[in-house]
Design goal:
Belongs to the DODA-type extradiol aromatic ring-opening dioxygenase family. This protein is an alpha/beta fold and 275 residues long. The protein is built from twelve helices and ten strands. Helices cover 36% and strands 17% of the residues. The strands form three sheets. The chain has a six-stranded mixed beta sheet, with helices on both faces. A two-stranded parallel sheet has the order 3-4. The chain has a two-stranded antiparallel ribbon with strand order 8-9.
Length: 275
C-alpha cells in the first residue's frame, strides 16, 4: 500500500521578533503542527540561506543561527536543538542531481531564523530531525517550482517539506512608515487576492510571471526571495489543486503573514482551528 504524502507548507516567518511575540501567527503554527501527521524528518527552505547552486545541510546536530542584529538579548539566547538529518541531506541532494541540478552537501550551515523561528511553534520540543536546503535567489519562480517537483518523492517518505518566507516583504516600508498602529496597507489585499486566485486556478504561467502581472507585485516584493519558497511548496505537492490558505493578517501593516498547505492531505482551516 502506497503511503500517503504529507502536505507541503509555506509559512510566513515575518521579523525575528515572531519568536518571542507570537501574535496571530504563533498560535496558528502551533495548531498546524498539532494537526499534521507527525513527520519522520523535516526539510526546510528559507530565504535566508541563498547559494548559486543548491546546498543541503549535513550536520548531525543542528546549530541555531542568529542571523540578525539590533533585537532584544533574549532573542539571541533562544536555541532550537534539533538533531540534523544527514541521510535526508544525501537523499535530497540525490533527487536534485537526478533533476539535473548540481546539488552539494554543506557541513557549515545550521538553521537560520527563517527555519528555527517557525519550527519553534510547529514542533516546540525540537524532537524531529531537520535539515535545510538553500535557495537560489538569482533564479525565478519556475526554477523553484521545478525544485519542488524534484523533491516531491520525499513527502511519501515521511518528510515534511517546510518552506518559509513572507507573503509580502517590503522592509523599506516597515522602516519608513513606523506604522505603530499596524494599519494594513490597502495594496496588500489586491496582491494577496490576485496571487491566491491564480494559485487556486493553478495558473502556473501567470504565477511564474507574477512580477509583471500581479497588482503591486514589485512593491509587495522589491526582491522576491521571500516569496520564491512558495513555488517549491507548490511544486512538491502530490495534488497542488488541493490547497488551504491560512490568513493570519499582517505585521507592521506591510508584512503579510499568510500560510499555505498544499496536497491531498492538507488540513482545512476548520481542522487547524479545532486543534
Amino acid at each position: 500500500m502506497t503511503a500517503a504524502a504529507l502536505p507541503s507548507l509555506y509559512v510566513s516567518h515575518g521579523a525575528p521578533l515572531l519568536a518571542i511575540e507570537p501574535g496571530r501567527t504563533g498560535p496558528l503554527l502551533s495548531a498546524l503542527g498539532r494537526t499534521l501527521p507527525r513527520p519522520k524528518e523535516i526539510l526546510v527552505i528559507s530565504p535566508h540561506w541563498t547559494t548559486p547552486t543548491p546546498r543541503v545541510g549535513s550536520l548531525a546536530q543542528q546549530r541555531t543561527i542568529h542571523d540578525f542584529g539590533g533585537f532584544p538579548r533574549e532573542l539571541y539566547e533562544l536555541q532550537y536543538p534539533a538533531a540534523g538529518a544527514p541521510a535526508l541531506a544525501e537523499r535530497t541532494a540525490g533527487l536534485l542531481r537526478g533533476a539535473g541540478l548540481p546539488a552539494a552537501l554543506d557541513d557549515q550551515w545550521g538553521l537560520d531564523h527563517g527555519a528555527w523561528v517557525p519550527l519553534r511553534y510547529l514542533y516546540p520540543d525540537a524532537d524531529v530531525p531537520v535539515t535545510q536546503l538553500s535557495l537560489q535567489r538569482q533564479q525565478g519562480p519556475e526554477y523553484h517550482y521545478r525544485v519542488g517537483q524534484a523533491l516531491a518523492p520525499l513527502a511519501r517518505e515521511g518528510v515534511l517539506i517546510l518552506t518559509s518566507g513572507s507573503f509580502t516583504h517590503n522592509l523599506h516600508e516597515v522602516f519608513r512608515t513606523q506604522n505603530e498602529d499596524e494599519v494594513e496597507a490597502p495594496y496588500l489585499r489586491e496582491f494577496v487576492a490576485w496571487f491566491t486566485e491564480h494559485m487556486a486556478a493553478l495558473d502556473l504561467q501567470a504565477l511564474f510571471d507574477y512580477r509583471a502581472r500581479a497588482p503591486h507585485a514589485q512593491r509587495a516584493h522589491p526582491t522576491d526571495e521571500h516569496l520564491l519558497p512558495i513555488f517549491v511548496a507548490l511544486g512538491a505537492a502530490d495534488d497542488a489543486a488541493k490547497q488551504t490558505h491560512f490568513d493570519s493578517g499582517s505585521t507592521f501593516g506591510v508584512l503579510r503573514m499568510d500560510a499555505f498547505a498544499f496536497g491531498s492531505a492538507a488540513p482545512t482551516v476548520a481542522d487547524v482551528m479545532a486543534a
